[in-house]
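Retro notes, item 3 of 5
We never archived the inputs for the magnesium ion complex last cycle. Fixing that now. Sequence and ligand:
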Amino acid sequence: MIRNDWCPGCGNFGILNSVKAVLSETKDEVILVAGIGQHAKIVDYLNVPSFYSLHGRAIPAAEGIKLAKPGTKVIVFSGDGDAYGEGIEHLIFAAKRNIDITVVVHNNRVYALTTGQFTPTSPYGFKGRSTPAGSPEIPLNPLELILSSGATFIARGYPVKADHFKSLLLEAIQHKGFSLVDSLQVCFTFFNQYDLYNQKVYELQGHDPADREAALKKMREWDYNSDAPIAIGKFYQADKPTFEDRFRPDKPKVSREEGIAQVLRSYI
Ligand SMILES: Cc1ncc(C[n+]2csc(CCOP(=O)(O)OP(=O)(O)O)c2C)c(N)n1
Ligand SMILES: [Mg+2]
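Structure as it came back at the time:
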């Protein structure tokens, strides 16, 4: 039995409970991959085959596992520092390839393991260990970035709303193609956002995830800095050929030419 090292009140507990519930319902073979950070400890607390990567390198490890074992569901647990900072190039290219993996980003908007430095999603003015006078940077909107990179499933969840979060996780895992679940995981110790999220978070209603323009508009509603309403739910979903469909010429689902033509058509 491994001792749990998260602080009392950590938002990671909610993610862990939801992941447990979802994995207990799936019959697929699953391999988990973690980055480096507080988020990464989640794989220590689950009795499932897993791989600890280097900081920022969880996604290429997951891509390799997926290509070696195409029948496996590969789920990555990454942090905002890990996925949106150090490893952002890998996130962009995995989305571009539409490789069939799921990335769950524990977006606490702080480097928690290293005790409170700012990340790409920390708000302007964020005071932390490396920015005592306040961050001089404007935060990145990862959902918008990932949409333009080619991801085919993009959701944001708030693990406190457990049933809603579970259903997003399940849909993301079942989706064929690259799926991202940006999770508003609160770091109770270094950036406690519970009051803000409990006040501002609302569930998307009547939104059509097939409508790319509507998805973009919704993603831009909250820019990680303002006090605008914060939508959670499935922003975008599309059915496009995956990297594996095009990469494994020995097992073509469609011919190479048709695969390329499908991809080109899907961008027009
Ligand atoms: C290549 C490399 N750079 C930096 C570090 C130090 N480091 C470890 S975890 C971390 C930040 C983790 O932040 P995040 O990904 O947001 O995870 P969290 O702890 O917030 O869950 C850093 C900078 C490292 N281990 N390796
Ligand atoms: Mg973090």
